[in-house]
Amino acid sequence: RPGGDRIYGVFDHQLPAALKKLPFDRHLSLKNVQKVVTEADGYQPHLIAPEQGYRRLIDGSITYFKGPAEASVDAVHFVLKELVRKSIAETEELKRFPSLQNDIATAANEALERFREESRKTVVRLVEMESSYLTVDFFRKLHAAPEKKPEKNGHPPGPNNDHFHDTSLAR
């Protein structure tokens, strides 16, 4: 019953593919950033940083993650329902008791529905928490953090490496 591989597939393939399709290029285009910052902070330039504009850009960007996150919950839910269905169908002992088989399937599907709703709420809550985590101080430190130099062998850092030190993520 290869369910774990299918669940990993949701997070290793489907979720990253959905995230790559998000319209960040449009949302973070120079024209949109100027518009959001101007609308948020007014037309008077700020001396340090346009804080409200940053907040709106962050909230808007992170809000895009809700759709793919909820779709991942639905995909895992579908995999689990299929596993329950196949497990019940393949269990020889249950074939003698069709009413018990039906009751188990009903109870399992009801539990999975409850877990799905709880998971959706949790995922949305996590996305919202992430949008409130980044503060303006994050951007101030980000500007001060030096960028990583290419490796000694002449190759730039790999695509999974951050462009900034972990200190930029500290509060």
Automatic annotation (TrEMBL):
<feature type="compositionally biased region" description="Basic and acidic residues">
    <location>
        <begin position="162"/>
        <end position="171"/>
    </location>
</feature>
<dbReference type="GO" id="GO:0005874">
    <property type="term" value="C:microtubule"/>
</dbReference>
<protein>
    <recommendedName>
        <fullName>Dynamin stalk domain-containing protein</fullName>
    </recommendedName>
</protein>
<dbReference type="GO" id="GO:0016020">
    <property type="term" value="C:membrane"/>
</dbReference>
<dbReference type="InterPro" id="IPR022812">
    <property type="entry name" value="Dynamin"/>
</dbReference>
<feature type="region of interest" description="Disordered">
    <location>
        <begin position="146"/>
        <end position="171"/>
    </location>
</feature>
<dbReference type="InterPro" id="IPR000375">
    <property type="entry name" value="Dynamin_stalk"/>
</dbReference>
<feature type="domain" description="Dynamin stalk">
    <location>
        <begin position="3"/>
        <end position="140"/>
    </location>
</feature>
<dbReference type="GO" id="GO:0005737">
    <property type="term" value="C:cytoplasm"/>
</dbReference>
<dbReference type="GO" id="GO:0003924">
    <property type="term" value="F:GTPase activity"/>
</dbReference>
<dbReference type="GO" id="GO:0008017">
    <property type="term" value="F:microtubule binding"/>
</dbReference>
<dbReference type="Pfam" id="PF01031">
    <property type="entry name" value="Dynamin_M"/>
</dbReference>
